[in-house]
Amino acid sequence: MDTISLIVTELVTNSVLHAGGRTPDVEVMLQLRGGLLTVEVRDDHPSRPSLNGAAARDEHGRGLHIVHHLAREWGGCVRLRTCPGRPGKSVVVVLDTGAAPHTWQGAFADRVALVS
User: Fold this and answer.
1) Is 68 exposed, middle or buried (0-12, 13-18, 19+ CB in 10 A)?
2) 49 phi and psi, to 5 degrees?
3) How distant, in Å, are the alpha carbons of 30, 32, 81, 96, 103 from that of 107?
4) What is the C-alpha separation between 104 and 21, in angstroms, rounded?
5) What is the mean pLDDT of residues 86-106?
6) Higher pLDDT residue, 110 or 78?
7) Position 93 pLDDT exceeds 90
8) 51-85, pLDDT tens digit by residue?
9) Which of 16, 23, 28, 93 has its CB surrounded by the most CB atoms within 10 Å?
10) Residue 116 and residue 113: Cα distance in Å, rounded?
């Protein structure tokens, strides 16, 4: 599984798992502009994501750590954004495609260009 797919999967999974027992409205947006790839996952639940520690045998609690690690590896960052007047929040991951590991230069680059 490539990096962008893993980031999107982790963020969408968090939106669904932490929706308070209901089915949330979730939006996924990708934008490539000037060498920066922005991945945004927005949901309508008011809970805010947090970086929690996970014990060795825990099944949950590592997703945001993975996302933060991958963003740093790509020279990027992770931000939380809320919109006044709208319920929920967005988790935004910005990746520098120029700083990406060498695997970016091949197979996945053409697929991202299609969504810019």
Assistant:
1) middle
2) -70, 150
3) 17, 16, 31, 17, 8
4) 37
5) 75
6) 78
7) yes
8) 777 777 767 767 888 898 889 988 899 998 887 88
9) 93
10) 5
Q: Is the pLDDT of residue 5 over 50?
A: yes
> Which residue matches tokens 């990746």?
95
* Cα(8)–Cα(28) distance, integer angstroms: 8
The two beta strands, 26-33 and 36-43, are: antiparallel
pLDDT (0 to 100) of residue 110: 45
DSSP SS3 for 4:
helix
The model carries a pTM of 0.76
One CATH from 3.40.50.300, 2.60.120.560, 3.50.30.10, 3.30.565.10 for 3-113: 3.30.565.10
